[in-house]
Structure formats: C-alpha cells, structure tokens
Amino acid sequence: MDHAPQPGPGGRLYVHLADGIYAERVMVTENRPRTTLLGNAKDPSKVVMTGAQNAQSAGGTFFTATVHVQAPGFEADGITFANTAGNTGQAVAIAVRSDRAVFKHCRFLGDQDTLFADFGRQYYTDSYITGGVDFIFGNAAAVFDKVEIHEQRPAYLTAQSRTSNDQTTGYVITHSSVTASDLGGKSFYLGRPWRAFARVVVMETSLPEQLAPQGWSPWHPGEIPTHAFYAEYNNTGPGASPATRVSWSHQLSAEEAQQFTPANFLRGSDDWNPIAAAAALP
Question: What's the CA gap between 29 and 155, in Å, rounded?
C-alpha cells in the first residue's frame, strides 16, 4: 500500500486482488484515502487476507488486526478478512476506523473481537460475520444490512462502546439473519455494553432459538445498565420474543425505527448515501 499511487482530488485508488490466500498484515493508512480493494464478488472465500495474532502474542488487542483501515472512504468487495487464532482471547480480523466505509460481499472470520468497527460511518451489506465473544465491537456508526451474523459460542454478538449520549454512533442490524452453532443447550446474547452509553438496534432480522429470552446482557452479572440503549423492531424467528426481554431494553414503533434505517442513520451532514455507494461496487 505504501507504493500505491495517490488518487487525484476526488479520485479513487482501485486495488484488484487475484484469488489466493494472503497471509500478511495489511495497513491502509490515512495517506491512502478513497481506496477500494476488489476481490472475488461472486465467491469471497477465494480471496482471503489472514493472520493469527492474539492479544498475548501481539502485545494487546489493538495490535492483533490482520487488516487495519485508517483511510477515509475505504471500500472492499469480495474479500475474506480472517484471524485464525481461535479461542485464545482477543484476536481481530479487521480494525475499521474509516468514515464512509463500505463492505460488500465480504466475510469476517474470527472468534473473540473479530470486527473492530470503531470510528466513522460504516456500511456492511451482503456479507457474513462470525465469532464467539464480543465479535462486533467499538464505537463506529455502523449498519449491517442483509448480513448473516453467526454466533459460535454461548456468549455475546456485540460490545458497542459509545461513551456519551451526544455521540451519533451505534450499531444497527437490519434485514439480516442471526444464526448460531450448536451451543449444547446454552444461549447467547445480542450484546452487552462495553461502555456506559452503548447503542445497538436490531430490526426486521431473523433471530434463532439459541438466543437467550432476555436478549441482552449487562457487562457484569447483576448490573442494570442505566444509559445503554438496546432496542428491537419487527424481528422474526424463534428468538424474537419481545415479552421476555430485559426491562432496560426497548421495542421500537415503526416511526421510531425510521431513524435507524441505513439512509437515515448514516446520512450525516454531508448527505452520504451508503446504499448508492454499495450499489456502485461490482
């Protein structure tokens, strides 16, 4: 990436990746804005960027990422981002700190802390994310639209980390499918608050029977989060059970849910259209 040409003002750098397994760490820095990585949109399993660092081997969670994106306007289509460290603690497949980021036809594979979605507005569509513990975490404003999110263990999908009610960040999972492995009769949760004002909304999404009836969990057993905002709207499947959810979660009305559509939640002051941006990719 250090030797890639700089796009002109308003231009874009396209990097085409041939089918293969790329066992290396990749850093897309702020010096490479508007970078698009193009893999195999028909079969992202054929283009794999992979590593196996965990927090112990790398010296901390935030040094484990196989791919680290700092560049604004980053896009990826048809790529698998993987961390194969397994159930060995924190091990990030990709860290995304990019405003107006788009991921389409991508796979995110790991266990604990698979996807660090931490800064800026991010849109994920037609993709697959799997992990075990807190495997979508951070403080981005991120929408997961038409995505399959697969839980491997009786743990937690999200660990969002909004720190103030004034922040416009949070995670929205919409028109998606949450699935789970055989958990041996145990349950998992949609999320727990990594920081006090964590915000996650799940709407119009299929939920499996392995989801705990309570839906959401405090960070520590017995706590009652007073500032976290966890909400659902019009979900389906055997795990959709509004009557059994924790008292500190919310069931949204159709009108309330409108603010969390991709177009509304990610619009920002510059009127960004994430759906159009994704449609422009191959």
Answer: 33
In the block, tokens 């306007």 appear at: 73
> What's the rounded Cα separation, in Å, for the pair 232 and 69?
30
Give CA–CA dist 183/178, Å, rounded.
Answer: 14
The phi and psi torsions of 58 (rounded to 5 degrees) equal -95, -15
Q: What is the pLDDT of residues 122-179, one digit of tens each?
A: 999 999 999 999 999 999 999 999 999 999 999 999 999 999 999 999 999 999 999 9
**What are the backbone dihedrals phi and psi of residue 33, each rounded to the nearest 5 degrees, phi first?**
-65, 155
* 134 carries an active-site annotation: yes
- Domain positions in the chain are 13-279
Residue 270 is among the residues annotated as catalytic for this protein: no
Q: Which are the contacts of 278, defined by CB distance < 8 A and separation ≥ 6?
A: 102, 104, 123, 125
Instruction: Name the active-site residue from 134, 145, 166, 270.
Output: 134
Q: How confident is the model at residue 267 (pLDDT cuts 50, 70, 90)?
A: very high
- pLDDT tens profile 73-95: 999 999 999 999 999 999 999 99
State how far the Cα of 203 lies from the Cα of 148, in Å rounded to an integer: 13
**Residue in 77, 111, 113, 145 annotated catalytic:** 113
User: What end-to-end distance do the CA atoms of the chain give, in Å?
Assistant: 22
The separation between CA 132 and the C-alpha centre of its own chain, rounded to angstroms, equals 13
How far apart are the C-alpha atoms of 171 and 160, rounded to whole Å?
Answer: 7
| Tokens of residue 83, six digits | 């961390």
d(CA 170, CA 203): 14
- What is the assigned CATH class of domain 13-279? mainly beta
Supply the pTM of this predicted model: 0.98
The pLDDT value recorded for residue 10 is 87
